[in-house]
Amino acid sequence: MKLPVLLLSFLCASCSHTPLSNNNVDPSTVGLSNARLQRIDNLIDQHIAEKKIAGAVTLIARKGKIAHLRAAGLADTNKAMQTDSIFRIVSMTKPITSTAIMLLYEQGKLLISDPVSKYIPEFKNQKVIEMLPAGSEFPYKLVAVKRDVTIHDLLTHQSGILYLASTGWFPNAKREQVVSFYRDAGITDGFCRPDESIGDMVKRLAKLPLYAQPGETWEYGLSVDVLGYLIEVVSGQKFDQFVQTEIFDPLKMQDSHFYIPKHKLNRLTADWNSDWNGSLERVTAPLINGDLALCPNDAYATSGKYLSGGASVLSTAYDYFRFAQMYLNKGELDGVRLLSRKTVELMTETNHIGQHDATLLHSHGWKFGLGFAIQQDRSHNVDSGDKGVYEWAGYYSTRFSINPKEETITLFLSQTSPFGAHFSLWDKITALSTSAIAD
Amino acid sequence: MLNMNVKAPLSFLLCLCIYSAPSFATGPRVAPSLFANNTQYLYTSDFSPFISSQTENKGVLIEIINTVLKSSDISAEVNILPSKTMAQYYFSQENALAIIGYDFNFSKQSQQKSMFVPILSIDEYYYTYAPVQQELKWNGELSSFKNKVYGTTKGNNVAKYKAAGIKIKYGRLASLLQKMKNKQVDFIKSPQLSLNNALDKHFPQQQSAFIKMEAKAIESVLGIAFNTQHADGKQSAEKFKQGLQKIIANGEFTSILQYHLGKKVDINPYLKHLK
User: Is B13 exposed, middle or buried (0-12, 13-18, 19+ CB in 10 A)?
Assistant: First the structure.
């Protein structure tokens, strides 16, 4: 459905900064320029007016206070975006899952150096694919892993486990062969919610070949979905229950869910397909492009079996701010300590991928901690304001960025496909957020 | 008495042992996975309820095979993979002892080096999704499905379908059922038991929408194909055949079938190949 321009203009005019809690302050009290923050409003409004995106919520916090929280444009057809609108945060689920793993680590229930096979036996004796030279009688061979995949490999995307969609990002024959096994085995990326448990999927995935030897590659993929199941095995709880009781409840993330409660359905934002050139349509059917399968409307399901540690969570700007603020506070929020300072340092201040670069969403100059990309220098293309900034993003165009030096959190939540068109907008928002620092 | 020439080196060695002891006592951090694994694997892929990685006894066919392996003193372990093409890879490229299942889609070379032992007969039927394909009928000729889309597991032989002008889409049974609903696939082939299991699990409210075409599609035989190029292949195949006869004769075979399929189920159709 094409969006009426007049309606959009009306909604932009009615965009508001809505106070949500006593966290909200005048930007100047936390060293931010109000005038400069308004440049973010202008940027978002321009994108809405040009029908590049339907709407967005932006949040900038500093020193524990929300200095900017704004909803703009449409959440759905004829429905204005609200600051408490609920979004598919997709891969922003991954830091939550990584947090759950580190809670178990702090409880002494696992070591991140543990082989995954210690908890999920199907990961024993895995194979790695090696392509044979062109003209060989058979195209590939499977060789034994030099060592088992560890929890550390999963937290850092060094397991050799892929996303099917990666055939579209970085096509090559080896990737295509691994993904063809994934297809045979009914593995999905978790962006659509299959009618099975995460355990069933992970056990099949474990028996399929790895793309590379564990630890010898940085490949964004289903590793964090494996962690979701591992949490079930180690904790003895369903993954969503563990996250609810150990993370969402203590942090008072009251609008974060794996499956949305019925009474909140009216707050769930629609996903929009944008050609980034003025044609914007509400998505009504699955978006299939090669091996990439997105089912944004699966988010309307109020119950289901599949709990993806890499993609399933729905949340709001305020809830994710609370999660991010806990990290910025080195593991504590409102008197509740979730993680120790030392664990947060291990996750957000330590490069765990050696010589590899976490280039998928960023650029060279970005490394990876445990669940977060970490900026290592300011000399490359993607600058989020400082060395040590850590962040991640989601497939329907969501991004968060935490700057520990300046004590800032930047959040952008939209629901727009395709994903690849948004890098420029995201980078501009972090640039504007950073340049609003005025002390 | 040892002379000094001998005592000195012995004392040195003794000291070396004493001083080395603490480091050996704690042990090096060697992962168990570094030790060699000599298990012989028989490869197969999920084909519930006959072969199932999700049940404790791995399905009726695998329980029969494990019983025969044990009684025949064949040391081998069944490895159920989620991909049939992977099982075929291990047989054709890694010289695995055997592959289990049916419709192996062997190359001529693999065919020549295999020794098949039949175990269970199964009748397969074509199924379609009634709300979409009410008119589709099986008349015994694949030409009746010309231009239709056949959904099957990757690794199955689809040559005759392609030759009949039928298009192919691959997937696991559950996803093929969904694809029939989504009009991406027109028909599939399955034993009734497998289909019922999948419907119970994934489409409990819509079972009647997936309809069986009256005439049987094909009689298939599930079994184990031993690799005669493997050092133990021929010998294992012979031992397996004898072991199978033994458990048929002593009633274990029937007991396993009845345990899995129910005492009231007529097991004779599963034994047709024996006649």
Answer: exposed
pTM: 0.90
Helices A93-106 and A223-235, axial angle in degrees (round to 10): 40
- What is the complex's ipTM, to 2 decimals? 0.86
- Residue A319 token pair: 């809830």
Q: What are phi and psi of A207, to 5 degrees?
A: -90, 0
Report the interhelical angle of A317-328 vs A93-106 (nearest 10°).
Answer: 40
Residue contact B83–A181, C-beta within 8 A = yes
Q: Supply the pLDDT for residue A302.
A: 97
How many domains does chain B contain in total? 2
Count of beta carbons in the 10 Å neighbourhood of residue B69: 21
Q: Which of A207, A295, A297, A306 to mutate to test the interface with B (most CBs of B within 10 A)?
A: A207
* Shared domain check, B178 and B136: yes
Where does the pLDDT of residue B12 fall: very low under 50, low under 70, confident under 90, or very high at 90 and above?
A: low
Q: What is the pLDDT of residues A156-182, one digit of tens each?
A: 999 999 999 999 989 999 999 999 999
What is the count of residue pairs from A and B with beta carbons less than 8 Å apart? 58
A118 touching chain B per CB within 8 A: no
CATH number at residue B192: 3.40.190.10
- C-alpha to C-alpha distance for A118 and A281, rounded to whole angstroms: 47
DSSP for residue A341:
H
Contact A124 B89 (CB under 8 A): no
Is residue B216 within 8 angstroms of chain A, CB to CB? no
**Chain B: nearest CA to A222, how far in angstroms?**
17
Mean pLDDT of A17-32: 76
Q: Could you tell me if B211 and B129 lie in one domain?
A: yes
The rounded distance, in Å, linking the Cα atoms of A296 and A191 is: 8
- Residue B235's identity, in one-letter code, is Q
Q: Are residues B67 and B104 in the same domain?
A: yes
Q: Give the C-alpha separation, B229 to B112, whole Å.
A: 10
Instruction: Convert the pLDDT of each residue in A72-91 to its tens digit.
Output: 999 999 999 999 999 999 99
| Helices marked H in B35-96 | 60-71, 84-93
Please give the full DSSP string across B92-139, using - where no structure is assigned. HHS--SEEEES-----HHHHHTEEEEEEEEEEEEEEEETTT-TT----
Residue A266 identity: N
Residue B112 CB coordination number (10 Å): 10
Q: Do B175 and A186 count as a contact with CB atoms less than 8 A apart? A: yes
Contact (CB<8Å) B82/A141: no
Asked if B206 has any chain A CB less than 8 Å from its own CB, the reply is no
Taking the Cβ of residue B105 and every Cβ of chain A, the question of whether any pair is shorter than 8 Å is answered with no
Residue B1 has pLDDT above 60, yes or no: no
The verdict on A63 touching B (C-beta cutoff 8 Å) is no
Out of A125, A180, A195, closest to residue B202 by CB: A195
What residue in B sits closest to A138 (Cα-Cα)? B93
Domain with B63 in it: 41-122+219-274
Domains plus CATH for chain A?
5-88+244-280+312-435 (3.40.710.10), 96-240 (3.40.710.10)
Residues B95 and B228 in one domain: yes
Bridge partner list, A315: A87
